[in-house]
Protein 1
Amino acid sequence: MDPIGERIQAVRQAASAQTMLDATRALAASDHGDGVNGEAIACLVEVLGFNNPGAAVAAVDGLIRLGPMAVEPILESLDPSNYGARAWAVRALAGIGDVRGLEVLEEALGSDIGQSVRRAAARGLGQLRLDALGDSRRQAVQGRCLQALVAACADGEWVVRYAVAVGLEGIGLADVNSDHLRPASRLALLGLSQADAEAVPVVRLRAALALRRLDGQPGG
């Protein structure tokens, strides 16, 4: 059996939480040069649905490492009835940054019950990799990301609003046409940076840092 096959078998035959974690870490450490195949990706996606948070974290790391080739299997696995697996899938899609995950990230930021999932979605929307898209398509996607992030400025959890500030910074810096999205990003960040609109100091500080970076000033 080839090394990837052995790692997959180890995951599927794991008899305890610890052996599952160890086996998943080993499989997740594989990369394209190891001959990763569809079965390996499917196995990592399957782990997302197991009741083993440590192994799920390792699987997410592995899927992010594999990048765009993991996106379709993740999207095909989404099951509204399995919240845990879906939450981990959102984290993986956010980390990969492929535009095919846009709709899932938008939905997660707007309505997911888990603050950590909304936080991951906010960061993901600010760091989608759009270089391969044409100008009009790229601007349309960035506009959707911006709309979702602006709405999330009102999220009830400060950790999500902090991530929104990071996401808004990413949108503003990625906007090659400063007259397109950067003004709206700045306006939303300005709100998060002011005490009368944002009660949590660390969120205000992060928003202020983002504003300085958008203005080309050194970050601190």
Protein 2
Amino acid sequence: MSALVQRLGTFLSSPHIFNLVYWVTAGGLRATYAAVEREADFTLADRVLDVCCGTGVFTPLAPCRYVGLDLNHRYVTYCQQRYGADQRRSFIVGDATAMSFRRKAFDVAFFISSLHHFSDEVVLQVLHQIAELTRKRVIVVDPSPETRRPLSRFLLSLDRGAYIRSVEQQLELLTRGGLSVQRHYTFYTGFAHQRMFVCIPGVKT
């Protein structure tokens, strides 16, 4: 299985193949789009930061200023070519652990399908920065391993992320990362279970 995962990771460096695989494993993204758009509760005046934006699949949801950041040059180039004609949207190559935006520069932040790709130490670095950069809401979505469906478990086993966590572990990291989780729930995309966390910057005391 590890050889298959490694080969899949090589293929996924192509933005087009990444989009195809993401679309299939996420059930066409309809359920995820609907959940993210509902919880983000955008206004036209908002500014959105999409951390680890990948190929920018959530870009069209934001009817406002949007900045996508990713470390993969090929993904960022793809985003610029596909979405860059809209002057409200910009994409930059950058390290999520060393973002250089001014404090509270964004109203809403996304951290979608990325938590499970990083160790606890790295996740905490990213989350603390997101908390510092965001004013209103932080939307975090990540795979939920709590499923008995054979297809879901198989797809999860193919995921390149090495840090699939339980809900309890996800909640602990979000809190330690400087976010207050307002609500969380699991939703089914058609092939897999995803966990939605709606957060605000700052931890309740």
Protein 3
Amino acid sequence: MKRVLLTLAAVCPLFGGEYAVLQNGFRIHADRHEIIEDKIRLHIGSGSMDLPATHVASFEIEEYAPPPPPSVPASDPPIEAAKIVSPPTPEELVATAAVNHGLRPEFVRSVAAVESAFRPTAISPKGAIGLMQLMPGTASDLGVDPHDPAQNADAGAKYLRQLLLRYKDSHDPVRLALAAYNAGPGTVDRYKNIPPYRETQQYVEKVLRKYLAELAR
């Protein structure tokens, strides 16, 4: 099967967009950007703008703001009916955690689906715990109980955001963040790329394919 190459410029932004900060101090809002030799192409709506790379000082991420929920006409509940609140599903926990940390729910759901198929009790052979498959050390660093589904989902989304920000100025930030989630940021930093591990390489592409499928739904 032909390998599909996806860079950050080829997928829907995981955050809300970005600002290109020019050397003269001006800021240009764009949906995303890509580097083409000595130029930077800003994608703005249905068009694009090419700038010399030397004119751009940096990029700033714009937070993703979820759309407001649709309004529902108020109605009086039946007096005789007791209100029963069902606990959130694992998918809902993951979506809520994504929004809380400024990430797209489709992206974090894709990671959870590949990691554990949304199973809160999943334990990997390497000891990763729960639906976001947190390693005990990572859970300890984040100060959460990985066996609690809500804490696990929230910590997983928080960790993904940290990794996306860590590699945001790299040549392929989404892939490197996913590789670091799977193999650890130390391994990614050592190779300065996706590690040459078949498991990690397949993991990254599987999550991205799942993410694109989520966006297409």
Protein 4
Amino acid sequence: MDPRLAELLREKRTLWVRRGDEEVRATYWTANAGRNQDEYLRLCWIMRDLRADRVFAMNRVLLDTLAGVQAWLARSGIQAPIELHSGYRTRKTNNSTEGAARDSRHVVGQAADISVPGVSSVKLAGLASVLGRGGTGFYVGRGFVHVDSGDERIWLDQGKPKPASPGM
């Protein structure tokens, strides 16, 4: 674990996640008691595939990265939930999601597309790439950042190019 992340998560690992009208604040690990399975399962529930109504065991490295990002922001004075755009996806949901990679980490519970109110996507992507042990995708103009616990990599998606104007 990155030393900065380890320091942020030394005492406890907590996530505050909002998805639509649902919201979960869960401390899924503490230094004194270790893992709290009930709180972990609450996080898995909010990160479920909504289309298929399926829950999956979310990767703890991913959760630690998200908790670290949130802890860093809190130390900087930003107290806000992580807005979850997408967590776990079944293969069927992934295949019907525009722009989703065929081998997406979402289908194995290792990815989340997130935003944080009041935090730019650029700052959020930077924090995730520094604190995380996986991939970080920055999607220009889409309002979210992809974070996963797969291979270490960073990418920029500028979206579809706009068609040229007639007469140009």
